[in-house]
Amino acid sequence: MKALVYGGPGEKSWSEIPDPTVAGPRDAIVRVDAVTICGTDLHILGGDVPEVRPGRVLGHEAVGTVVAVGDGVANLTVGDRVLASCISACGVCRYCREGVYGQCLGGGGWILGHTVDGVQAEYARVPFADLSTYRLPETVSDEAAVLLADILPTSYEVGVLNGGVRPGDTVVVVGAGPIGLAAIQTARLFSPTHVVAVDKAQSRLDAAKRFGADVTVLVDDDPLDAVRSVTDGLGADVAIEAVGLPGSFELCTTLVRAGGRVANIGVHGAPATLHLERLWIRDVTITTGLVDTRTTPKLLDMLVAGQLDTVHMVTHRYALDQIVEAYDVFARPAETGALKVVLTRR
C-alpha cells in the first residue's frame, strides 16, 4: 500500500510500504476512506515531538471501512463504516477505568501516528478497535465525521470543559485555526456573553466570525484593550490557547481576569514563561491536557442532530495520493486560506 511516511524533521514522502496486518486479538484493519491533516502533524515535522521516529506513518484522524478484525474484537464486523479516534483505549487500566483514555497505561493513549503507524495511508491497523472506533450512521458523511476524530473533542474537552466555560462568560480564543474555530463553536454551546477571537491573519478572523465569535482582533491590534472593552475592564473569564507557541500562551495569561481560567490546547515544542510573579495573587487557574475523546459519542449525536457544523471548516479537498501537496497547502494558511484539508479515496 501507499502511506505518508515521516523521514525526520522536515521530511515526508508518499511511499510504498507493507500492508498492515492484524497483530493482536483486539486489532482491526481499516480501509481509509477519508483522512485529514492536523496541526500536530506539522509539529511532528517541525521536530517538536521527538518520540516520533523516522519511518513512522503519520496521521491520527480517519474515517474508514473495516476489512479485517482480530479474534478479540466483539463489536465490529467486516464492512462496518467507522470513525477511527485519535486516542486508543485499552479499557482496563486505572486511567481508562476513570475515562481518562489519553493517559492509558495499557498500550493506548495517543499512539496512532505517534508511537505506532497512523492513518494517512490506504489501510491502517487500529489497536483496541472496540473502544477506539465509532460506527457511523448513514446520514453522516465521511467529510463531516472525520473532524470528530480529534479537533472537535480536543477543543471541547481540553479547551471548553477544562476551561469551565459557563453561561454569561466572556471567552477569548487565541488562535483561530481549526482547533480555535472548534473551540469557538463548542464554547457557544454554553451561551457565553462574548466570544473573542485573536489571530494574526484576517482570513482566520473572518472564519471565526462565521463560527460564532462576536469580537475579532488581530494580535498586533491590542487584544487586551478589545477584551477589556467588553468586560468592564476585568478581562476574560476563560482564555483558550489554541496555537502552541510561547507568545500565545503568555498572551492568554494577560487577557484573563482575576479568578479566571486559562485552558491550554496547543501542542508546545518550546518552553513558555509562566509569570507567577503576576499570576499568583490573581487566583488564576491554568489547565493543560491531552484529549481523552470521552465526549466523542455526544459530539456525534450533536452532529447528527444538526447542532454542530464541521463541513464548513473544510476549505480544501484532495485525493489521498495528493497528500504531499495537501500538506504544503495546509502548512501555509496565511497564503492559501486553508483551515482543514480532507483527503479521500477516489
From TrEMBL:
Pfam families (alphabetical): ADH_N, ADH_zinc_N
Keywords from the named record: Metal-binding, Oxidoreductase, Zinc
Residue ranges of every copy of the Enoyl reductase (ER) domain listed in the record: 7-343
Gene3D superfamilies: Medium-chain alcohol dehydrogenases, catalytic domain, NAD(P)-binding Rossmann-like Domain
The organism's place on the tree of life at top rank: Bacteria
PROSITE patterns membership: ADH_ZINC
SUPFAM superfamilies noted in UniProt: GroES-like, NAD(P)-binding Rossmann-fold domains
Requisite cofactors: Zn(2+)
Coiled coil region boundaries: none
Family, as annotated: Belongs to the zinc-containing alcohol dehydrogenase family.
PANTHER family in UniProt: NADP-DEPENDENT ISOPROPANOL DEHYDROGENASE (PTHR42813:SF4), ZINC-TYPE ALCOHOL DEHYDROGENASE-LIKE (PTHR42813)
Protein name (Swiss-Prot/TrEMBL): Zinc-dependent alcohol dehydrogenase family protein
Species of origin: Micromonospora maritima
